[in-house]
Write a structure and sequence with these properties.
Radius of gyration: 22 Å
Number of helices: 18
Helix content: 40-55%
Shape: globular
Largest sheet: 7 strands, parallel
Distance between the termini: 45 Å
CATH topology of the largest domain: Rossmann fold
CATH class of the largest domain: Alpha Beta
Strand order of the largest sheet: 3-2-1-4-5-6-7
CATH superfamily of the largest domain: Glycogen Phosphorylase B
Strand content: 5-15%
Number of strands: 13
């Protein structure tokens, strides 16, 4: 099958939508599919995601020139400066700048048609409603190529993006299918965008951490015997990701367990506020900010060095970082938003209301003082990851999704029935009776426990 995955651009480190697209492409290529990735705007020189695609043999193309992207970035910087200088007009300036960017990207419609004529994909897969998505969907539809759209968050969220979705949902009827990342997100999208049928669920794929697991579990066991418990946060240091809530929650755990530590991976506009909060609470020596990791090895190293992963986001879809932590056998403390309640069950971790620093602190305090609970939740988190987010479980669902779309347009569907039965093993497969799960190694055996 010839699959073209499309986005407007790579947004930078720790971008969930970018990770989803790249992981899909790499795993589809490894499975023998003819897959390529198209960006409207080219990636930056040395982009780590572009490097991963190249290493996997996945072709990466772009429509715009680096000069166009540089001009757009310069315009964005001017718009941000104007918004800071004229805060009363911030909403109008933001709206106008988004509309200008949207209009500029429509100019690549014919270029995309040319690309489609050359690449001849069986299906175009557009991920996230970024600025180029409207053009990509319209052009693919005009070319007669089946196009699917995948929402990786919750429509009309986060706050301030309502106008983006109001413009975007107008093109959704042009899509052959719409997908989301979890059952709750599918129901919420159908509620918010009732003009489309209830979306299919196609989870994200997160790379396995089995090779690093034994060392990670041994390190955590050693810390459980007396060394400090480490809480980790890995996301953009932005308001909606809750980094300041993480600091306040950690402060509560520190009062009860003075030996605890924290690790923070990421950068963003709230970095200075995080540092100021740490100084105010006398916790600067307890925190290490490691910056943004840009490779799978650096991510695994970060996950190996912590004991509990905390994700206090105020709005979410299905965050990659949480699932990556689960792959590393970590217990989770997170907020009950977006798709998180679909897989952060009481066996896997603790969910708290968004913005509730007291509840967050209580959850972190509880796990800081209970090594047995941390271990049990970590084992359950690893198992939940294997059931829902591994390549072996998700890829059949993804390829079945594509085949249904192509078959509906009259393409050949030879062997479709057998592949459909394989896809229906996944617990989130639509209308499916789950087949017997795959045999997996016993995490407790890796750990050396009883």
């Amino acid at each position: 099958m010839n699959i073209l995955l499309c986005k407007n651009s790579f947004a930078g480190p720790i971008s969930g939508a970018d990770e989803i697209a790249v992981n899909y492409a790499v795993e589809l290529k490894a499975a023998g599919h003819d897959v390529s990735v198209l960006l409207v705007q080219p990636p930056a020189a040395g982009d780590p995601l572009a490097a991963r695609l190249d290493a996997a043999g996945v072709q990466l193309s772009s429509l715009a020139s680096p000069r166009f992207t540089a001009s757009l970035a310069a315009g964005r910087r001017l718009a941000l400066a104007a918004m800071r200088a004229f805060s009363p007009a911030q909403r109008v300036l933001r709206s106008n700048s988004r509309r200008i960017v949207h209009d500029l990207l429509q100019r690549f419609h014919d270029d995309f048609l040319e690309h489609l004529a050359h690449a001849r994909p069986d299906v175009v897969h557009v991920i996230t409603p970024d600025p180029g998505a409207v053009m990509l969907i319209r052009a693919a539809h005009a070319a007669g190529v089946p196009v699917v759209y995948q929402e990786v968050g919750t429509p009309f969220h986060p706050p301030g993006f309502e106008e983006v979705y109001e413009r975007f949902v107008k093109v959704l009827p042009l899509c052959a299918e719409v997908a989301t990342l979890s059952p709750s997100l599918a129901r919420e999208m159908h509620r918010l965008v009732p003009q489309i049928a209830e979306p299919r669920v196609v989870p994200l794929i997160a790379p396995d951490a089995a090779d690093d697991l034994s060392d990670a579990l041994a390190s955590r066991a050693a810390r459980a015997d007396g060394a400090s418990v480490r809480f980790g946060f890995a996301s953009r240091l932005e308001h909606l990701k809750g980094p300041l809530q993480f600091v306040e929650g950690f402060a509560a755990a520190h009062r009860a367990h003075p030996s605890v530590e924290m690790r923070v991976a990421g950068e963003g506009s709230q970095r200075q506020q995080v540092l100021a909060a740490l100084r105010r609470l006398g916790l600067s020596e307890k925190c290490r900010l490691v910056g943004t990791y840009t490779s799978l090895e650096a991510r695994s190293r970060f996950m190996r060095e912590i004991d509990v992963f905390v994700h206090p986001s105020l709005t979410e879809g299905t965050p990659n970082a949480v699932i990556e932590a689960m792959a590393h056998g970590l217990p989770i403390v997170a907020t009950a938003v977006g798709g998180l309640p679909d897989f952060i069950t009481e066996e896997v971790g603790l969910l708290v209301p968004p913005g509730d620093e007291r509840a967050l602190g209580e959850a972190m305090t509880r796990l800081a003082g209970d090594a047995s609970l941390r271990r049990e939740m970590g084992l359950a988190a690893r198992e939940k990851y294997r059931q829902l987010f591994t390549t072996g479980e998700v890829l059949p669902l993804l390829t079945d999704f594509y085949r249904r779309v192509v078959a509906a347009r009259g393409a050949s569907s030879n062997g479709h029935g057998a592949r459909r039965r394989e896809a229906l093993r996944h617990p989130w497969a639509s209308g499916a009776e789950a087949a017997a799960p795959s045999r997996h190694e016993d995490l407790a055996t890796i750990h050396g426990g009883d």
